[in-house]
Design brief:
- There is one protein chain.
- The chain has 25 helices and 17 strands.
- The protein is α/β, with parallel strands linked by helices.
- It has three domains: 320 residues; 194 residues, Response regulator (Rossmann fold, 3-Layer(aba) Sandwich), CATH 3.40.50; 194 residues, Response regulator (Rossmann fold), CATH 3.40.50.2300.
- It has a six-stranded mixed β-sheet, sandwiched between helices. Strands 7, 8, 9, 10 and 11 form a five-stranded parallel β-sheet that branches.
- α3 runs antiparallel to α4, α15 packs across α16 and α24 crosses α25.
């Protein structure tokens, strides 16, 4: 028996390691998919085993009723997990509060509580559980719930129905967890030394305790802002279903043995512990401590367990193989130069393929891959004896990752790196690039602070002084006299807001002190967006107060909100719609939020954007005479499934310029020669985005901007172009062209 339990626990550990490894080793882009996939499979296994027990027992025993409650609870959790997976990986929206999944999860707690308390009541009659353990568990649960409620209260704004609903949901889970925690801890501690057939209740109690740990991860994330590590809770969720499944497997084994035990030839003498239980309840399953040779042949539990483990391990290894194969390079993609090339060169790319600016990095990746194909085809047709390869690395929209990734590219002999996507990342790595002879050519960094003449940093877009002038001019034209900004407090947001403030004031407007927030990290999954809804409550409350004061002083038509954000604009808008003053005024955005697909996917956020005439500028590309820009943009759109930002086309041109530069200067390793050649190529090149001439700081010289807004067409939301700003070569003034739909879209 002890050997069989060792096999069970060994198999459990192996199963947990294998399933959690799939989640742990997955890339940031695929982790949501694998997490939901594994959790749903493990949940289905546990629910199926519980249902099997119910059909075998048919309510004939006390444990039959308890396991019926357990089966219902696990089935409800399985349904909730499936629906939550739909939110995250199918619909890709922020789940409503409360969602259908919440109702199912919370409903399950009642059945699980019945199971635990029924088990506690029955065993307490026979073993007289320690009152000290019970009291300690109750005190611990009360402290846990009190702390969670206090923390959530301090972060929440309880002035709207949504915020109250959010608060209720956020405290409901830890409250229910605490209720389950009390009997689970007592059962786990007081019967751990009892006979082997108590294993099911030990496993099931331990599994429910893991749920408490999973939900408690929220507290750590809120306190430490470790939003990037929020996915670790998935490891506990995946494990807890397997632990409960292990207990159910053990119970099924003894359920089968009990069936044989009812035969006269299998009578046995009970141990003292078994006698105590059997005398107290005649229907209690009390399996024997020993099994006859005949039964061993009929029920080779060890062999069956091993076979199941082998099949499970094979299935998981088959699923995890692509991840293991790429581990260590999980965030790197290598596209080699054509094998037929006489000479080869490799370019690097640092892109925000995950994190808060993943939507931008994804479109730029598509532009680079199309350009790489076109460059190599062109070089082949023109008998240019050079093939170009590309190594793409994901920066996670996190400046801390950039240095190590740039060092990795440098170790491979790469001289020109395309990217990074954001200004905060570029600021973090520019010194290393300057000191180590590496050229950075970014297709989307726009912070004016990084416009430094004579360095190795080049940007194929204008800096934000141009965008600031455009948005300030547009706001004044709309009759806005007072602006309250809300922005991500990094080098991009700080500088853009400051530039816009200066231009708006020069035009006679007033800028009120606004609300800055720490840039969030991590992929915006449905779970993480919920935490962000809580974390931004205070900032939005402050913003609402400032807007209310401005309205009372200047009037609704004169007040506007200017937000500089990345993908976090979606949960911000979902929260903002519940604050009355924020819905009364016009909102303006930046190139960080324009054409955000999540904004139109989430109906609540889209309604707010449409209601507030949310207007966003982005660098406008000029259409080439051969209509190549339309073809490339259409191909990018097909690759990513949505309208791309113009920076994707800029990325296309940036790879062309880098490839032409390497082709023209491959005979030299001198960095000065390489930078001069790149400037010459950019000044003479006319790509799908038009003239790419650079100014003295290495940024694009000429700028024009398209303005996009979210439109509601019979409850179908879409991004539509509204205005275009043109900048002439002679003057720095912008001319507004009303309703000029860009011909390149």
């Amino acid at each position: 028996m002890e050997l069989n339990r060792r096999i069970l626990f060994t198999g459990l550990v192996i199963a947990i390691i294998l399933s959690d490894s799939i989640i742990f080793l997955a890339t940031d882009k695929s982790r949501d998919f694998y997490s939901n996939w594994i959790i749903n499979i493990n949940s289905a296994i546990a629910a199926a085993l519980a249902i099997f027990i119910v059909f075998r027992q048919k309510f004939h025993t006390l444990h039959g009723k308890a396991h019926a409650a357990l089966a219902i609870g696990l089935s409800l959790w399985l349904c909730a997990e499936i629906i939550w997976a739909m939110y995250e990986i199918v619909w890709q929206i922020v789940a409503p509060v409360p969602s259908v999944a919440d109702y199912l999860w919370l409903s399950a707690y009642g059945f699980l509580a019945y199971y635990l308390f029924a088990t506690y009541k029955e065993f307490n009659k026979k073993f007289r559980f320690s009152k000290k353990v019970l009291i300690a568990s109750i005190i611990g649960g009360v402290i846990f719930v009190t702390y969670i409620i206090g923390l959530t209260t301090s972060l929440s704004v309880l002035s709207t129905p949504r915020s109250i609903a959010m608060f209720s949901v956020m405290i409901a889970y830890p409250t229910m967890d605490a209720i389950l925690m009390v009997p689970a801890i007592v059962i786990l501690l007081d019967i751990r030394k009892e006979p082997l057939w108590f294993t099911p209740w030990i496993c099931e109690s331990l599994g429910l305790l893991l749920i408490v740990l999973s939900d408690s991860w929220f507290t750590l994330v809120v306190l430490t802002s470790l939003t990037e590590q929020f996915w670790l809770s998935s490891l506990f969720f995946a494990a807890h279903f397997l632990v409960m499944a292990a207990g159910l497997v053990w119970y099924i084994k003894y359920l089968t043995l009990h069936h044989y035990e009812q035969q006269p030839q299998h009578q046995h003498k009970m141990t003292n512990s078994e006698t105590r239980l059997h005398n107290g309840h005649s229907n209690m399953i009390v399996p024997p401590p020993a099994v006859s040779e005949k039964r061993k042949k009929r029920i080779p539990i060890g062999t069956i367990t091993c076979m199941v483990l082998i099949l499970f391990a094979g299935f998981v290894v088959y699923s995890i193989y692509p991840i293991i194969f790429s581990f260590g390079n999980a965030n790197i993609e290598v596209i080699p130069a054509p094998a037929s090339s006489k000479h080869t060169v490799t370019l690097g790319a640092l892109l925000s393929l995950s994190g808060a600016s993943a939507s931008l990095g994804e479109s730029e990746e598509a532009g680079l891959k199309i350009a790489l194909r076109d460059v190599n085809e062109s070089f082949k047709k023109t008998n240019t004896n050079l093939g170009v390869g590309l190594i793409l690395e994901d920066t996670h929209t996190n400046p801390a990752f950039g240095i190590e990734e740039l060092k990795d590219l440098a170790s491979k002999g790469i001289r020109i790196v395309l990217g990074p996507s954001t200004s905060a990342e570029l600021e973090a790595i520019k010194d290393y690039a300057n000191n180590n002879g590496i050229i950075l050519l970014s297709p989307s960094s726009t912070a004016p602070l990084l416009a430094t003449p004579g360095d190795n940093i080049f940007r194929l877009v204008p800096d934000d002084t141009h965008q600031a002038e455009a948005i300030a001019t547009q706001m004044r034209k709309d009759g806005i006299g007072v602006v309250i900004p809300m922005w991500r407090a990094d080098v991009y947001g700080d500088r853009l807001v400051n530039s816009t403030k200066g231009d708006f004031q020069m035009l006679g407007g007033t800028v009120v002190d606004g609300v800055g927030y720490a840039p969030p990290l991590g992929h915006f999954s449905a779970s993480l967006d919920r935490i962000n809804l809580v974390l931004w409550d205070q900032q939005l409350k402050s913003l609402d107060s400032k807007v209310t004061q401005a309205i009372s002083r200047y009037g609704t038509e004169k007040v506007g909100v200017y937000i500089v954000a990345f993908d976090e604009v979606v949960p911000i808008f979902i929260q903002a719609q519940d604050l009355p003053s924020l819905s009364k005024v016009r909102w303006y955005g930046s190139d960080g939020s324009v054409l955000n697909n999540g904004l139109i996917r989430n109906v609540e956020a889209a309604k707010f954007a449409a209601k507030t005439s949310f207007l966003n500028p982005i660098y406008a590309i000029r259409v080439s005479h051969d209509n190549k820009s339309n073809l490339v943009e259409s191909e990018i759109q097909n690759m990513i499934g949505r309208i791309p930002r113009s920076y994707a086309s800029v990325a296309y041109d940036s790879l062309w310029i880098a490839a032409l530069t390497e082709n023209a200067s491959r005979a030299t390793n001198d960095i000065n020669t390489l930078t001069k050649t790149l400037v010459q190529m950019a000044d003479s090149y006319t790509g799908i985005t038009g003239n790419t001439t650079l100014n003295e700081a290495g940024d694009r010289k000429y700028a024009s901007y398209d303005f996009w807004a979210v439109r509601d067409n019979n409850s179908v939301f879409s991004w539509e172009p509204v205005n275009r700003y043109y900048q002439g070569n002679v003057t720095n003034n912008y001319e507004i062209v009303q309703e000029a739909t860009p011909t390149n879209h």
